[in-house]
Amino acid sequence: MGRKSREKTTRTDPEKPASPKEERRPLTPAKAAVFFIITLAFPFVLLALLEGGLRVANYGGDTSAFETPEVLGGNYLVPGSNVGKRYFPQERFPPSPPGDAFLAVKPAHSMRIFVLGESSAAGFPYPPNGTFARVLEDALTDVLPGDTVEVVNMGMAATNSYTIVDLAGEIIDQKPDAIVIYGGHNEYYGALGAGSTESLGSHPAFVRTYLKLQRLKTFVLLRNTVAGVMRLVRGGRSARDIEQDASRMESVVGNQRITLNSDVYEQGAEQYESNLLDAIRKFRA
């Protein structure tokens, strides 16, 4: 008998009806615009939240030009004790202006003058009552006996015209009647100067923008992070602990020999002129 081969039959299940795919409707222009705005705004919202948190925590301290000490009952302002941190962010004891107090609300009959400059303007090496700002205040008080005379000294050691232009806006807010500028001595070696170890380059507009950005706590955090990384690269050296003005000036000298009409010399001259023109423009306006 011959062997019959069994045919294998493949049974196929009846086809199931495929589930219809949901049709995706294209976004309307209005919805697309909303999603685009949300996507674009998201990083800015995060930065705003970070900035707000850092401000609540007072990260980096208060570097305002003026502060209201509680001991004076809130009726007077004095130069900020930490304003020098703007120009010497890595120093434990940055320079600060003399503590001249003036009324928070300017009297109707008054003469208010601000003095700007470096350590010479601040009075170094003389005591506070021997500075030319105090002599000027005494002379004006004799001439104007019926008025309130306030001469506020904002001079700071180891600074230059960058500090003058940086403080201009906050000084204008205090409604001065006159500004006395006694500067130029530290233009190369003062903070951020062309020959200083604190220099940020030879473009005054860029340096002024950097100083403005320091009002943002987020920028201060970024600045401190970069400085911390650089400190690790240099072997973990800590911030300078400097107290005397002479030692401070010696510490910020980067280029000890600046030749007349050299590139660094021209950069310093351009920096001085640019900053003073910017500051005077603001004061005149």
Short account of what is shown:
This protein has 285 residues and is mainly alpha-helical. The chain is built from eight helices and six strands.
On the 0-100 scale, what is the average pLDDT?
Answer: 86
Helix content: 25-40%
The Rg value, from CA coordinates, equals 32 Å
Contiguous helical run count: 8
Broad shape: globular
Could you explain the architecture of this structure?
- The protein has 285 residues and is mainly alpha-helical.
- It has eight helices and six strands.
- A three-stranded antiparallel sheet has the order 1-2-3, with no helix packed on it. A three-stranded parallel sheet has the order 5-4-6, with helices on both faces.
- Helix 4 runs parallel beside helix 8.
- The radius of gyration is 32 Å and the shape is globular.
- The N and C termini lie far apart (121 Å).
- 27% of the residues are buried.
